[in-house]
Design goal:
Blueprint (H helix, E strand, L loop, with lengths): L3 H22 L8 E5 L5 H9 L4 E4 L2 H14 L4 E4 L8 H7 L2 E5 L2 H14 L4 E5 L16 H11 L5 E3 L9 H13 L4 E3 L6 H6 L4 E4 L1 H4 L4
Parallel strand pairs: 1-2, 1-8, 2-3, 3-4, 4-5, 5-6, 6-7
Helix pairs in contact: 1-2, 4-5, 5-6
The structure holds pyridoxal-5'-phosphate.
Length: 224
């Protein structure tokens, strides 16, 4: 019987193989793609085998859920990196800055201001991605494409260094054109980071230049 660490290692190898193949097709170095294991709703029994198998980048979409799960894990695995991939309320900015190494959901000026204060107060600076509502969907987080230049200017003026852009494209349609659009916006603004691609579309994202892919179900199975 394979143990939980073997099963986690096999899942990681499968997803890494998909990233490698897509990177090869696009003449990219797969080492330029960080795989974030998205662990929202997953228990410690799901997460610990990945850590034991050597994985270090993890994503959560809620600050409170992450606060309940990650401080103990971080104490046991001090070199892990935690990414916030879900929407962030300004009143949780300090908690997020204290816990996360990267925040992928900066999408408005008021949140940029709250993050400036939180970074000063907590004395640590996570990587910051600006989330773009790439398909202009009313129910989704992210800034409108038209507002992106103003938001990036605001961040620069406030002293926030932005690593890149993030998007969650519309469901049920081909993702590649949205990834291409996000990549074009990042290029236009001189940003190297691209947080895009999930379980079903990571190949397209890697081919379009993703620096970070966010993967849940392909590693852990369907969420209950
Ligand atoms: C849940 C989630 C993911 C992972 O989605 P899967 O389809 O399970 O790979 C990626 N990004 C964000 C923002 C998420 O909320």
């Amino acid at each position: 019987m394979p143990d939980a660490t073997d099963i986690a290692a096999a899942a990681l190898t499968r997803v890494a193989g998909r990233i490698d193949a897509a990177a090869r097709l696009a003449a990219r170095d797969p080492a330029g793609v960080t795989l974030i294991a998205v662990t929202k709703t997953r228990s410690l029994a799901d997460i610990e085998p990945l850590l034991a198998a050597g994985h270090r980048d993890f994503g959560e979409n809620r600050v409170q859920e992450a606060q309940a799960k990650w401080p103990d894990l971080r104490a046991a695995w001090p070199d892990l990196r935690l990414h916030l991939v879900g929407q962030l309320q300004s009143n949780k900015a300090a908690d997020a800055v204290a816990l996360f190494d990267a925040i992928h959901s900066l999408d408005r000026r008021s949140l940029a201001d709250a993050l400036v204060r939180a970074i000063e107060r907590e004395g640590r600076t996570p990587l910051l991605f600006v989330q773009v509502n790439i398909g202009a969907e009313p129910q989704k987080g992210g800034c409108d494409i038209a507002e992106l230049p103003v938001l990036l200017d605001h961040c620069a003026t406030a002293g926030l260094s932005i690593t890149g852009l993030m998007c969650v494209p519309p469901a049920g349609v081909e993702a590649a054109p949205w990834f291409a659009l996000l990549a074009r916006l990042a290029r236009r603004h001189g940003l190297a980071g691209l947080s895009m691609g999930m379980s079903d579309d990571l190949e397209a994202a890697v081919m379009m230049g993703a620096s970070h892919v966010r993967v849940g179900t392909a590693l852990f199975g369907p969420r209950g």
